[in-house]
Structure formats: C-alpha cells, structure tokens
Amino acid sequence: MATSTEAVQTGTPAQPHLKRVLSLWDLIYYGVILTSPIAAVPLFGEGQVLSHGHTVATLLLAMVAMSVTAVSFGRMASIYPSSGSVYTYISRELNPHLGFVIGWAMFLEYLFQPIQNALYAVLTIQRMTPRIPFAILAALAVGLITFMTVQGIKFTARTNEVLLGFMMLVTTVFLVEAFRYIVLHHRYAGLMSMQPIYNPSTFNLRALAAGTSLAALVFIGFDGVSILAEEVKNPKRNVLLASVLVVVFTGLFSGLQVYMAQRVWPDYTTLQNPETAFMDVAQMASGPYLFAAYGAMLLVSSIACGLAGHVGASRLLYSMGRDNVLPRKIFGYLSPKKSNPIYNVWIIGLLAYIGVITIPWEHAAEIVTFGALLAFMGVNLSALKHFWFSREALGHRNFFVDCFVPGFGIAFCFVLLISLQSWTKYAGLTWLVVGILYSAYKTRGFTMRPKLIDFSES
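and the corresponding structure tokens:
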C-alpha cells in the first residue's frame, strides 16, 4: 500500500510486478500438465524391449534419479527465483563457457522435441491408416504443424485442460478395463505379480540401465515448475516440494498404467509394433473402441506437443539469432506481418521432416533424453557447488542435503547417460564437440565471455 500511495502523491504510476498468488497445488497441477499423465504410454513398447520386460522397474528407478534432481532444482530456484533454467545456474555458479556448452546441449533437446512428436504422430496415423505411404504421412503431419506455427497459432491453457481431461478419461477407462481383463484371465492373484518389477528369467542389468535411460524421458518437464518461482507463495518451500511431488506422482501414476499393461500383455517379445504397443494392449483389454480412443489421444497429444516444441525451437533460434549467437540476418529475422520468426519455423519444419523420415523414433526420444540428462547433471553440480563448496555455505552445511543428495543425482544421471544406446551417445558427443568448437570461435579461444542464450524466449 505504501508503494501505491507514493505513486499517487508523486504522480508516477506504480511499477507493475508479479504477484505471489499461486499455491502448492497450483504448482503441482501445472507440473503434471507439463510432464503429461500419459507420458509413459508412447514409451511402453520400446521400454519393454530395451529393459527385457522391466518397464515398471525402470520407471521407479528413473523416479528416484529425477526426485533427487527435483530437490536440486527447487533449491536453486530459491537462489535464482527469476530464472528457473539450469543453463543460468551453471553459467552463474560454475563457468559461463561451461554454461554455453550445456545450453548448446539443451538446444539439441529443443530441436529434437518437434522431430520426436511429429514422428510419433505419423506412427500413430500409420497404425490406423497403414496403406498411406510413410513419407506422405510425414509430409502431412510436419506440414500441418509447420503451417500452424507460421500462422502464430498457440494452444491456450483451456485447450490444455480439455486435453488433460480427455487423457484422464481414456486412462481411467483403460485401467478399469485392464483390471477386468486381468481378473477374468488370471483371477485376483494376477493383480499382485512381481514380474513387471523383477522377472529372473529375463533380468539383465545392462538392459535395465538402458531402459531406465529411456524412462527418464517420462519426467522431462517437471523442471518447468521452477519457472513460476516469482509467482508462488513461500517459494523456498513450495517450489522444491511441488517439483518432488510432481516427479513422484508422474512415476507412480505412469508405473500403474505400465504395470496394468504388462499384466495384460506380459510377453514383450510378441509386440509387433513397439512404438505404438499401448494401442494393442488397449485393444486386447477392451476391444477396438479403446484402441481407437488411444490412437486419437496419442495423435492429438503428439500434434499439440509437436506444435509447442516447434514454437519453442523456432523462438529459441530467434533469440540466438537476435543476440548474434547464430547469424542474425537469418535466425534473428521477424516477419513484419505476423511478428513471427518465419525463417526459423520453416528451418525447423525442414529439419523435422528430414528427421522423421530418417531417424527411428526411439533414437529421437533418446536424443531428447541425452540433452535433459546432461542438463540435470549440471543442476545437481550447481547445487553441490553452491550449498557445499561455496564460501556462503561455510558453517551451516548439512552433509546429506547439501552434498550427498546432489552428488547422488550427478552419479545416477551419469549412469543413465552412459547407458544410452551407442548411436545416441555418438550423436550427442558430436553435437557437444561442435558446440565447443563454435564457442571457441565466438570467444576467440575462450578469451571472451560467451553470448548467453536466452531460454526464456522459448
């Protein structure tokens, strides 16, 4: 009130500012939308193949790693409440050159999100219309997403709520029908099997690690909770708590869906189409109507996520072009009519089409995971440095919270990173080398401070 009174007396308007109006449950709801309650559905088949039938176990292990990382995210958001980006944490806490390299890796993640989602949309359409050539479906899906992005169309919060409601409805029907199917074929004892978590006949530690690396993709998006740190009541408590609860809810709810799916279809070696295997499980549990419902849900979700990813990637290219991280004439161009970076939109569309017709979906998904895991290692490292090794931490350090938790997060994420398939690791490392060389060129051999990538624009 004092600020407003002073503004009236001096005749100057009060400066607008963000208000702390969001509760803990507002944050949790927002985080659940970001991670998606059906995030495990597209990964089910590939996860089953990679883990040799232990997808539930991989989700629970990934949940542990992401929960630890969520603690680090929440604590760092209390230090830098206006940001919420691991890129900023690393640049400020560790080194701006290292921050640039991590930002470059996150850039790869942004670029592959439209590819991954457009590819899954094509795979879903192909399951329902198998006679149309794949290349034509790819052109239609990518073209539609690109055209919508050029027009500046964005999905509103209401659209997300409707989509979330549809997902929850179809998922609830599946869980009920799966329950009925399992009891009918295996009686109630079939609901209490340990086989989805540990099957001694197929258990393999290397396969479990590979599956866990892919399962980490389910949790990507939880870190978006920290973006709202300036608008949250009691941010030091609620951002951290919401981040962890979103990860735990996502892990347990996804684990329940996958557990029921594994009990309906226990033999992973008989999956004919791993990329869209959950549609087959739904059909076995309840017939063609649920098959079609899952197909529609996955298609709409993929297009919506693909549009969001396309917008994010094109805006990130624009922010890099505007700040001359990339050539400004092309990447920093805005259309005078639509105020949209249309060159970047078409560039992303072209790259997405090439990616869809040349890269298997599981590789595209793992590339996204590669960038995310590297970023998660970075936020844990930043938390370890700030809360354990910094001068400010002297005298009030706690070994478990300040050292063990972020250290465990670094180690766990590193294990998941090196457990990715060889193709993914080589592609990711090649991209990092290109980023290091580019950074050396732009900073004259690391003698100048690198240009910062503004991730807030995406």
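(Above: one complete record from the training split.) Residues 63 and 248 are 6 Å apart (CA to CA).
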